[in-house]
Amino acid sequence: MGVRSAATKLHIPPSAAARRPTTVLPLVAVFLLCSASYLVGVWQHGGFAASPSQQSPAVSIAAAVACTSTPKRTTKNKASSSARPLDLSAAAGSSSSAKRYPACGIKYSEYTPCEDVERSLRYPRDRLVYRERHCPSSERERLRCLVPAPPGYRTPFPWPASRDVAWFANVPHKELTVEKAVQNWIRVDGDKLRFPGGGTMFPNGADAYIDDIAKLVPLHDGSIRTALDTGCGVASWGAYLLSRDILAMSLAPRDSHEAQVQFALERGVPAMIGVLASKRLPYPARAFDMAHCSRCLIPWQLYDGAYLMEVDRVLRPGGYWILSGPPINWNKYWKGWERTREDLRAEQQAIEAVAASLCWTKLKEAGDIAVWQKPYSHANCDSKETRFCSSKTSDPDAAWYHSMEPCVTPLPEATGGAVSKWPQRLTAVPPRVSRGAVKGVTARSFAQDTELWRRRVRHYRKVIAHKGRYRNVLDMNARLGGFAAALAAAGDPLWVMNMVPTVDGNRTTLGAIYERGLIGSYQDWCEGMSTYPRTYDLVHADSVFTLYDNRCDMDVILLEMDRILRPEGTAIIRDDVDMLVKVKSAADGMRWDSQIVDHDDGPLVREKILLVVKTYWTAQDQDH
Predict the structure, then answer these.
(1) Membrane topology per the record (predicted)?
(2) Is the per-residue pLDDT at 275 higher than 70?
(3) Where are the beta strands (DSSP E) in 176-225?
């Protein structure tokens, strides 16, 4: 089972010691028998398993798990009289008897459970509802197999090289290289894909385009850290913002521009599958310092301005909205856009009217770029067209399958406020915490949580090979974002997608995560995540299986973890030892190499850590 026993000293009372025979032969015999039993047990349960590949460092184990009755940890890490003993009965079956999960067919190599193209055709096309999340509605629709990597799959290039190049075999699509050839999005170069950094509205490259934006918006003083890019293409805007310490959530639907989000993640750029349609985006209110649309073709002026109202909901007070492409600068481009002057003029006037109804201020329109700013307060908003939400009936943070609301959250009633500039905001107490809006969290407990995760991350560095291996990181139960903050403070070239499970009633933690200058989303782990297969190098799951116990089958979550984890990627699973034994029993049938190790505070803590490496295999190997 990969559970190793630790040497334990036996306490022998003096009376017993006096009765011991003087010969040492019985002790030698016992020692030899114990040693033989230990070696046979380790051999049977994969204790000496090799690395899945010589190309990637194996997970190294720093501590063994004590197979003695261990108490729960108290606040001082002392034994508790109410602690229950370890229950390893679930581990009775070895990996050889574990359920083996078959490989899915090659046609599922890019399967996205909740954005399945065939299933989407059942839903209305009005307002692009069919491109929203639609997960399997029955057990019959749910895949119970391992999604294969395409033939020839290779380990992605490390950052920062990955920003500009990827292996074609990993994302074997040429559609965009043809459709967007003149716009410099992407091109095929032998066995590689090249990303020149171009875009429809930035023919001189993303860097030059961002320089133009910086003349209108303060990008260099740390006041802008989080950004939302709607209709992101291959996410070059977000990719080039990273060098300026700005973290963009790049968003695009799974549509005719096949695999654009997959390209983004393969480049090592934060991205999710998503669309502005009828439901709110899965982010809290006041999350982003800046939102952007570059020829994203979203009809901002339609549906009573619902899409701009949604942007207003997720923008922080004083946040910026940047628009380039139709209809901006229509007088120059109307012929190339194959539209009439009158049509484009009317569209821009309608957008301006919606922005005014939100009490936004248009800062400037320069060349191909227009910028609006959301107010810091609605106290001076005198627009007769503004439709404010009722604070009694509307929750601005409700965003999981929540329909868009045609109203604006009044800022004086909104919990939040000014955040520190980056990088100070990473460890500063978030306004939601300081104002008591996060249940059970105080400034003191926030500081304690920050220090706790610093210590845990230091422990992770001791037990897994990490240097240069991880770029895209997923935290499945982020809470206050302490894990991501600890990684960011360490300065490694990686980013973390912080997921807040919807089954946990305290949704406000995701808002606090954004106030720290980090990004994330709501998620129900009984459903698939809005991402492509093989998009994360490291998956972190803290108490996820206890949280979802009796909510859905354990293997539903494990199969989703396998889908989104790259070949030779790593998973760190923290949970109670009884739960981890069950998880490992299931994981042994999933082409994972795994090992249970001690908690960072030592063997006298019931919580343990399951370290996992997903083995390398592709669709070519699925029958082997």
Answers:
(1) Single-pass type II membrane protein
(2) yes
(3) 187-189, 192-194
Specify burial of residue 400 (Cβ count, 10 A radius: 0-12, 13-18, 19+). Answer: middle
Which amino acid does the sequence have at 101? Y
Q: What is the DSSP string of 57-97?
A: PPPPP--PPP-S--PPP-TTS---TTPPPP--GGG-S-GGG
Of 447, 442, 422, the closest CA to residue 514 belongs to: 422
Q: Give dist(CA 430, CA 424) in Å, integer.
A: 11
Listing DSSP states for 21-62 in one string gives -S-SHHHHHHHHHHHHHHHHHHHHTTTTPPPS-TTSPPPPP-
Q: The pTM is what?
A: 0.85
How far is residue 125's CA from residue 131's CA, in Å, rounded to a whole number? 8
CB 246 within 8 A of CB 270: no
Note whether 277 and 231 are within 8 A (CB). no
CB 575 within 8 A of CB 90: no
Cβ(306)–Cβ(406) under 8 Å?
Answer: yes
Q: Coil, strand or helix: which one is 234?
A: coil
The answer to whether 327 and 357 have CB atoms below 8 angstroms apart is: no
Q: Is 459 helix (H, G, I), strand (E, B) or coil?
A: helix
For residues 165 and 264, what is the distance between their CA atoms, to the nearest angstrom?
11
Phi-psi group of 304: left, alpha or beta (phi > 0 → left; psi -120 to 50 → alpha; rest → beta):
left
Spatial CA neighbour of 509 closest among 485, 482, 480: 480
Decide if pLDDT at 7 tops 50. Answer: no
Length of the chain: 624
What Å distances lie between residue 184 and 104, 180, 299, CA to CA? 35, 7, 25
Phi first, then psi, for residue 373 (nearest 5°) are -125, 135
Nearest by Cα to 356 from 380, 372, 376: 372
Q: Average pLDDT over the chain, rounded to whole?
A: 84
pLDDT of residue 29: 54
DSSP label at residue 279? B
Q: What is the pLDDT of residue 28?
A: 52
pLDDT, one tens digit per residue, over 489-498 is 999 899 999 9
- Phi/psi of residue 244, each to 5°? -105, 15
User: Is beta strand 592-597 parallel, antiparallel or unpaired with respect to 165-167?
Assistant: unpaired
User: What is the dihedral angle through the alpha carbons of 593, 596, 600, 605, rounded to the nearest 10 degrees?
Assistant: 160
Could you give phi then psi for residue 330, rounded to 5 degrees?
Answer: -60, -30
